[in-house]
Amino acid sequence: MTQAAPLSRFRAFLMTPGILRSGGLAFLLGSVSVMAHAPFGLWPMMIFTLTALVWLLDGAFESERKYRSAAWRAWAFAFGYFFFGLYWVAYAFINRGPEFAPMIPFAITLLPAGLALFWALAGALAMRFWTRDVRRILVFGLAIFAAEYARGHLFSGFPWNLPGLIWPAGGPVSQSAAWFGVYGLSFLTLTGFAAPAAMAGPDASPRLRSAPLAVSFAVFAILFGMGLGRLARPVSDDAQTVTVRVVEAGFGQRDKWDPAGRQAVIDRYAALSGAGDLDSVDMVIWPEAALPLPLLEDGAALAQLGGALGGETWLGTGLYRRSPTPDGGTEYYNSFAVLGFSGDQAQLAALYDKRLLVPFGEFTPGAAVLNRLGFRLPSAIASGMTPGPGPVTLDVAGVPPFAPLICYEIIFPGFTPDGENRPSWILNVSNDAWFGPTPGPWQHLAQARFRAIEEGLPVIRAASGGVSGAIDARGRQVAAMPPYSSDYLDIQIPDPGYATLYSRFGFLGVLALVLVALGALALLARSGLTPAKTRVDNKKTSY
User: Fold this and answer.
1) Sheet containing 425-431: which strands, arranged edge to edge?
2) Domain 243-497: homologous superfamily in CATH
3) How far is CA 67 from CA 120, 128, 139, in A?
4) Residue range(s) occupied by CATH 3.60.110.10 in the chain
5) What is the pLDDT of residues 178-228, one digit of tens each?
6) Residue 133, Cα to own-chain centre: how many angstroms?
7) Distance (Å, rounded) from C-alpha 353 to C-alpha 190?
8) Positions marked active-site
9) Among the ranges given (123-137, 236-250, 261-275, 413-427), the one the predictor scored with the smallest mean pLDDT
């Protein structure tokens, strides 16, 4: 019996027809794939699941209705992947109040079902170019990569849990995001982790069957070695000596928004901000929407904060603000403001309004129709928010220029300003308390660490209910407070790195990888190493 016999039997099992069986197996594989992501970090799991998905698609290819069968299997895999990867969105409805609980079943099923449609289209597209030989590994990687790239950009985009994010942020392989971003790393991960599928197939040559696995091993070995070299080098010669204080008051979402506890929230933030040795602190940083009030309009709260901070320390805080419109209405913004104090007087030194708003959390697509149906928005501002003009770099006296990214914005590669507006550090303020003690806040942290690698910039995080602290320009966590701490952390901002290839050229690095893969496909097709048609024993089936 050959060594490939167990793999061949497992492949044959996955190729077995039947709509319920194929969909159930795909759903199960997608579900366990989530274990590759934070906080679990079992990234080898995805080698097994992606290999098995290729064999499921092999079965679709042998069916009479291959496009429909492939779309179904890919959709079922992705539905399991997104369902268990995003179930934590239910906590936003729980935290908003019991009247929103009936919406939870719809939220946790419709969102993953919609996202899985991208994979369904990719599965059908892959069938157009599928083969029975090793070329299908590249076809698979290209098709699913296209689905993930589209998912991250279309309809406002939602690039959560991209395949490249399974790699430990700050580790050697993750450093490749500095060259071609997490999308490039996702393409290599999809293709490389599917490579073992070629070991069981109809190719006559064992050497040819093992070639994709050998190439993938070599690619990741090179990335690992280059990543080790990058981690061993100094970040840069541009040292930063500014100290910031990150404050986390430790309130749960419902406690914070309880009107009876409003003053307690203000008191705790003021006490923690002014505690200890404040003379060495240049800026105190609070999370997104730290206080349950429109701070810029509340003179009493501002006077209390001025007394706690004095006149030498900036306060950078996430807040909600209101602005009147010409027609007599009101616009709401999720903002970040830098405030200075002189006695009990506050001065606004800088302001940023969040650009990328969370669908169904901060704005409602098709709001007019949904409102007529009785849909209520599960956010603190029930009427929705207005997006700001775009990303900015803020320049405040005594503090290196920085780019504020509010919550959700940190998950988007390339959103940080570049070129002449490139900041010296990134500030991510967030309210992860919406999502409770779930994997959500840890997945959010992993994405922030990848942004540091991509941009070559340190990240300071102030996250209610999440991990607050500092990330260096290589994506390594250098200081941290655990979720729901009621404490502060004084941090010297890590040094900025040099502009990375990804920060300068963006998608060009990803495009280069895709063109290499397409070239390899063309070369294999012309070389005669892979047969144009291969005889198989599987009978044609409907699914």
Assistant:
1) 394-396, 399-406, 425-431, 459-464, 468-471, 477-481
2) Carbon-nitrogen hydrolase (3.60.110.10)
3) 9, 8, 15
4) 243-497
5) 999 999 999 999 999 999 999 887 765 778 888 999 999 999 999 999 999
6) 34
7) 36
8) 288, 354, 407
9) 236-250
